[in-house]
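From the methods appendix. Each design record in this collection lists the tokenized structure first, followed by the designed amino acid sequence. Records were kept in a plain field format so they could be parsed without special tools. The example shown here is representative of the layout used throughout.

RECORD:
FOLD TOKENS (259 positions):
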């Protein structure tokens, strides 16, 4: 096993903030192919990698340690969930071709007239999102590593928030779930299996711009345990099928001859 690399952070306070559920990612983590990296977290319920062929993530039992392992060169996303809130990290394995955010930033500047962005060590982005064109341009820009969630300060018109909510609802409806606003936050509700719950959080992230307060009211319903009604009684040994025993057919006896 390679030497451990630790990144210590407060998951609830920083990595899974109260404002959760939209582009961009909360953290960008570099990995090397076939090498491990450990993150020590305060608390976490579960994690899920979007593309396990690029990187794998495993929670080590009883330690709140997250083990990340690069598999092949590329980029993927990691969803972390704790106490009704979630964060999304970008995992970059090796040195994939760099993302050129400059053209997307130029498009966003035209679509959002008051956009103010700085890059480099002190990154920041502020804008008023007043129409669909601006929202969609920001959505494309924030899919890159140009900005993290903590770098944003966005102001939305009510009509654009409703438009974004409608998009989230379109993603949740096939899953049997619903989304609504409560004040400035998004409430996601319904009953779902753990697998569908995870799909819902991915949909919420992919379809949203900026950080929104999330009220996760999804009730997880686990599938029923398989019954043993069709299994043989443990107290009674199972009866093996009878084997067909070959029978040798003998010729009829011959009558003794008189001498």
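DESIGN:
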């Amino acid at each position: 096993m390679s030497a451990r690399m630790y990144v210590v952070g407060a998951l609830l306070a920083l990595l899974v903030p109260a404002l959760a559920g939209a582009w961009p990612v909360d953290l960008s983590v570099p990995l090397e192919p076939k090498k491990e990296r450990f993150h020590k977290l305060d608390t976490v319920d579960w994690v899920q990698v979007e593309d396990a062929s690029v990187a794998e993530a495993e929670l080590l039992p009883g330690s709140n340690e997250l083990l990340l392992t690069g598999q092949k060169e590329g980029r993927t996303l990691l969803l972390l969930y704790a106490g009704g809130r979630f964060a999304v990290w970008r995992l970059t394995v090796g040195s994939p071709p760099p993302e050129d955010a400059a053209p997307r930033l130029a498009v966003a500047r035209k679509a959002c007239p008051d956009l103010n962005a700085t890059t480099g060590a002190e990154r920041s982005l502020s804008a008023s999102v007043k129409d669909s064109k601006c929202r969609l341009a920001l959505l494309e820009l924030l899919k890159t590593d140009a900005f993290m969630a903590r770098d944003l300060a966005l102001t939305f018109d009510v009509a654009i928030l409703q438009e974004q909510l409608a998009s989230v609802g379109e993603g949740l409806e096939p899953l049997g779930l619903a989304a609504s606003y409560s004040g400035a936050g998004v409430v996601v509700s319904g009953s779902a299996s753990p697998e569908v719950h995870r799909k819902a959080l991915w949909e919420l992230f992919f379809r949203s711009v900026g950080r929104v307060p999330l009220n996760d009211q999804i009730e997880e319903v686990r599938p029923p345990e398989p019954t043993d009604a069709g299994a043989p009684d443990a107290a009674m040994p199972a009866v093996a099928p009878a084997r067909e025993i070959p029978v040798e057919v003998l010729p009829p006896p011959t009558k003794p001859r008189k001498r």
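APPENDIX NOTE: The longest strand covers residues 74-82.
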